[in-house]
C-alpha cells in the first residue's frame, strides 16, 4: 500500500485539535503526518486553521522539547519554539498515538535554512565571491553548522524514534531563495543568480584547498563575472548554455568548473554524517526537487547515505512528472524509498482532477505521496488527496 502523508505545523495540529486533525487526514487516505520539527519564519495565510488565520511563526526554532544537556559546549544550538512550552509537544503526542496504533510520524526537519542562527553566527553562513553574507543559510562546510545539523537530527531520532526524518536544506541556499522585501534592479539572470549563490566562505575555501581545489582562484573568477554583469547597462548572458548544461556550461573556466565539481562534497559528506547517527528503524529521506544541483546536491552520490528521496514536483508540468520520477528512481535504485511530493495550492494545481493526474503520472515509480499542507489550504481541498490516491496506479516492479 502506498505511504501517504500530509505536511503539518504544530500550531495547526493545536488549533484543529490533534484528534480531529488525525481523523480528517485518515479520512482522505493519509496514514502519516509529516510534522515540522525545525522551521523558519514566514507569513502564512491559513484558511485551514480555525484560530490563527494569518500567522508569523517564530524564526529559526525547533518544535520539540530540547534536551539542553545534549548541547553543552556546542557553538550553534537549537532554540525551542515558545509554543512547545505553552501548547505542548505535538511531536511527542503524535508518537504516543502512533505507538497505540495511530498514524505514522515523519519529522520534517529544516537543516541549514535559518536566518535567526545566521544572524547570531555570521562566521558560519554562506558568503558570496565578494564576501557578502547570506544570513538565511548556514554553510554545509562549517564545522559548527555541520555539528548543529547532525546534533539536531540525532536528538530527534534518538529521543522520539519517528518512522522517518525528512531532510530539507542540508545544502547551499542560493541567492534567490527569498528574504524580506528583496530589491533587484538588474534584473538577475539565471547565471547571475547561480553565481551569487556559490559559497566562498573561509570554511569552503579551506575544505576545497584540502581537496586540492583552488577556491581562491574560483572566487576571483566569479567576482569578475559578477562585476561584469553589474557594470552592464542591460543584462547580457555570458553563459548562454546555462542552466541547460548544468556546471558544464562553465567548462571554459577550469578553475571555476573544478570548484563547482567539488562543491557537492560538503553536502554529500554532511548527509553521510547525519545518516551515521540515525538509529536503525528510523528512515532518512532527502527532500529533493528539480534543479537541486544548484545547491550542491548530487543525488547519485547521496543515495548510499539515505533511505530514499522525497521528490517535490510542486511546479512541474504534468507531462514532465513521469520523466523526472523515472530519473529519480534511476539515481537511487529500485530498493530505496521514493515519495512524490505535491502541493495543494491553486492555481498551481487547478482542481481535483489536476492533482489526480499529477499523482497518477508519478505513481508507477513512487512508493508513496506527500501533500502540502494541512493548514495552508481550505479544508475541503484536502479531499482532493482522497480522489488522487484512490485513482493512482500501483508502482511498477
Structure write-up:
The chain has two domains: 298 residues, Glycosidases (TIM Barrel), CATH 3.20.20.80; 79 residues, no CATH class. Helix 9 packs across helix 10, helix 13 runs parallel beside helix 14 and helix 14 packs across helix 15. It is 38% helix and 16% strand. The chain has an eight-stranded parallel barrel with strand order 1-2-6-9-10-11-12-13, surrounded by six helices. A two-stranded antiparallel sheet has the order 3-4. The protein is built from 15 helices and 13 strands.
- Number of domain modules: 2
List low-pLDDT spans: none
CATH architecture of the largest domain: Alpha-Beta Barrel
Portion in beta strands? 15-25%
The main sheet orders its strands as 1-2-6-9-10-11-12-13
Largest sheet: 8 strands, parallel, barrel
Based on DSSP secondary structure assignment, what is the total number of beta strands?
13
CATH topology descriptor of the largest domain = TIM Barrel
Please identify the structural class as seen in this structure.
alpha/beta
Radius of gyration: 21 Å
* Corresponding CATH superfamily of the largest domain: Glycosidases
**Gross geometry:** globular
Keyphrases for this structure?
397 residues; alpha/beta; TIM Barrel
Q: Could you give the topology of this structure?
A:
Layout: E1 3-8, H1 10-16, H2 18-27, E2 32-39, E3 44-45, E4 54-55, E5 61-62, H3 82-87, H4 90-99, E6 104-110, H5 115-120, E7 125-127, E8 133-138, H6 143-160, E9 164-168, H7 190-196, H8 202-210, H9 215-231, H10 254-262, H11 264-277, E10 283-289, H12 299-302, E11 308-312, H13 318-332, E12 337-343, H14 352-362, E13 368-372, H15 383-391
Amino acid at each position: 500500500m502506498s505511504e501517504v502523508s500530509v505536511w503539518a505545523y504544530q500550531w495547526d495540529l493545536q488549533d484543529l485539535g490533534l484528534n480531529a486533525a488525525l481523523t480528517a487526514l485518515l479520512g482522505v487516505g493519509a496514514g502519516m503526518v509529516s510534522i515540522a520539527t525545525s522551521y523558519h519564519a514566514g507569513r502564512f495565510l491559513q484558511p485551514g486553521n480555525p484560530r490563527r488565520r494569518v500567522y508569523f511563526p517564530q524564526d529559526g526554532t525547533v518544535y520539540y522539547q530540547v534536551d539542553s544537556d545534549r548541547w553543552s559546549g556546542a557553538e550553534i544550538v537549537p532554540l525551542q519554539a515558545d509554543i512547545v512550552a505553552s501548547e505542548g509537544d505535538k511531536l511527542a503526542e503524535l508518537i504516543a498515538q502512533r505507538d497505540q496504533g495511530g498514524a505514522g510520524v515523519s519529522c520534517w526537519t529544516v537543516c541549514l535554512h535559518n536566518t535567526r542562527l545566521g544572524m547570531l553566527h555570521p562566521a558560519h553562513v554562506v558568503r558570496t565571491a565578494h564576501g557578502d553574507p547570506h544570513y538565511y543559510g548556514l554553510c554545509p562546510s562549517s564545522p559548527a553548522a555541520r555539528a548543529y545539523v547532525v546534533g539536531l537530527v540525532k536528538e530527534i531520532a534518538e529521543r522520539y524514534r519517528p518512522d522517518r526524518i525528512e531532510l530539507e536544506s542540508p545544502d547551499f541556499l542560493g541567492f534567490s531563495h527569498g528574504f524580506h522585501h528583496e530589491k533587484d534592479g538588474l534584473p538577475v539572470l539565471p547565471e547571475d543568480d547561480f553565481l551569487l549563490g556559490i559559497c566562498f566562505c573561509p570554511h569552503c575555501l579551506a575544505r576545497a584547498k584540502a581537496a586540492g581545489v583552488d577556491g581562491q582562484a574560483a572566487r576571483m573568477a566569479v567576482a569578475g563575472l559578477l562585476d561584469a554583469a553589474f557594470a552592464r547597462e542591460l543584462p547580457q548572458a555570458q553563459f548562454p548554455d546555462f542552466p541547460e548544461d548544468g556546471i558544464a556550461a562553465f567548462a571554459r573556466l577550469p578553475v571555476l568548473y573544478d570548484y563547482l565539481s567539488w562543491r557537492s562534497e560538503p553536502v554529500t559528506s554532511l548527509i553521510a554524517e547525519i545518516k551515521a547517527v540515525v538509529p536503525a528503524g528510523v528512515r532518512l529521506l532527502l527532500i529533493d526537487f528539480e534543479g537541486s544541483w544548484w545547491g550542491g546536491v548530487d543525488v547519485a552520490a547521496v543515495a548510499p547515505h539515505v533511505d530514499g528521496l522525497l521528490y517535490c514536483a510542486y511546479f512541474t508540468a504534468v507531462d514532465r512528472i513521469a520523466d523526472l520520477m523515472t530519473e529519480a528512481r534511476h539515481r537511487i535504485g529500485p530498493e530505496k524509498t521514493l515519495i512524490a511530493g505535491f502541493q495543494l495550492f491553486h492555481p498551481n494545481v487547478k482542481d481535483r482532477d489536476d492533482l489526480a493526474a499529477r499523482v497518477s503520472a508519478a505513481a508507477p515509480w513512487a512508493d508513496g505521496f506527500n501533500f502540502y499542507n494541512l493548514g495552508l489550504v481550505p479544508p475541503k481541498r484536502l479531499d482532493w488527496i482522497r480522489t488522487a490516491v484512490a485513482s493512482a496506479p500501483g508502482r511498477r516492479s
